[in-house]
Structure formats: C-alpha cells, structure tokens
Amino acid sequence: MNDVGFQPGPVTRPVGLETEFGVLHPGDAYANPVVLSTRVVEAYCTGAGVPTVRWDYEGEDPLADLRGGRLQRSAAHPSQLTDDPARPAPSGDAPPADAGEGADPPPAPWGSRARPSAAEAALPRATTA
Predict the structure, then answer these.
(1) Residue stretches of the chain with pLDDT short of 70
(2) I want to staple 18 with a disulfide (CB 3.0 to 4.6 A). Which of 33, 37, 74, 120 is the partner?
C-alpha cells in the first residue's frame, strides 16, 4: 500500500474501545482512564462542531448480555447491581448494605476478601487532571 499523500478521514464516532482495552498514557502511572476517555470524546466533539457531552449511563443494563441474554437479578453478584441510584452496589466482595450485621458473604466463587487488599492498597492512586 502506498501511504504517500494519505490523509486520514475524520473519526465518525468513538467506538468504545477504552472500555474494552483501556485508555492509557504511557509513562504516567497516575493517569486517570476516565479523564483520558473524556478527552477522546471532547476531541471528537470539537472536531465535529457539536457541544461537549456528559456520560449518560441511564440506558445501560448491567445484567444484559451482549449476546441477547440477561442474567437473573437474583443470580447476580451484588456488585453487578449498579442500576439503582438509590441503592449503590457494594464494592468487591462486600455484602449488600441491607443484609444486616453478620450477613453471609456472597457464595463462591465471589469469596469474602477484605477490601482493599494489601496489594490493592499499595497500587498508585488515580488522579483527576
């Protein structure tokens, strides 16, 4: 293929690969992938002459499968139940907030690891730009 004089065309829309492969800034261990992804969207909007957009998760269904199936709510891990703003999902292996004191942790394979683990706590912290 001959690249001489090649002018790439404009991006017609972001394809969402930042959620599949991760957006990163090589050499910056503290780069925030959400900020970097926002910059991609803002750059697209600037080039297209449209106003900046905000992230809108309202139409998302955390239990829907891309292949057309849907996980039963009762079978989902508590951390997957992110669609009700009045009842935030617990982080990691934490039992639901309404489970009460001494509630059983989710069944295997979820486990009952304390969060954050020592290894997670030692990781660099994300920052906002």
Answers:
(1) 1-22, 45, 48, 50-57, 91-117, 125-129
(2) 37
Please give the angle made by the CA atoms of 100, 84 and 105, to the nearest 5 degrees: 30
Distances (CA, A) of 23 to 9, 53, 78: 22, 18, 27
In a domain, 70, yes or no: yes
Cβ(33)–Cβ(24) below 8 Å: yes
pLDDT digits (tens, 9 = 90+) for 45-60: 677 676 655 666 677 7
Q: Are 123 and 28 in contact (CB under 8 A)?
A: no
At 106 the pLDDT is: 54
Q: How far apart are CA 77 and CA 88, in angstroms?
A: 13
* Residue 57: strand, helix, or coil: coil
Domain that holds residue 45: 24-55
Burial of 41 (0-12, 13-18, 19+ CB in 10 A): middle
Tell me whether residue 104 is in a domain. no
Our count of domains for the chain comes to 2
Determine contact, residues 40/18, Cβ cutoff 8 Å.
yes
